[in-house]
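Appendix B, example 12.
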Amino acid sequence: MKLDIFNPWRDLTTWSGITIQWQTANKGNVFITYLRDKDSKKPITLGNGRTKEDSQEAAKVNLKKIGPDGVKQAIESGQMVHPSRVEAPKKEIDWRDGSNHRYKAQRDIVDGGRPQKDERLQLVPK
């Protein structure tokens, strides 16, 4: 973010009594539009784009994605909220080799050399 003298903050909108301001900065060949709270001057989110207008649109889209709850969270924590950094749910790893076969040997290597029990090959005494 640049000095307010050369690049002033402008009012964008008001949500639930919170006035949101924007400012666009040029970083190399990319424009970045920052959004912040007018009263506390804490950052809310940002948007990137090849042109100034694209970055402003991206910032508005990000603001709509995070919603009023995200704005309040950003003001309380003092950290920007990025809608693209939502954690994906963790899922169980399904080990497969290049031929799309389940591959226990790779799983043995990753698990630290513990051999996996294979119930099919166990001999049952008579």
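The chain has a mean pLDDT of 78. The longest strand covers residues 18-27.
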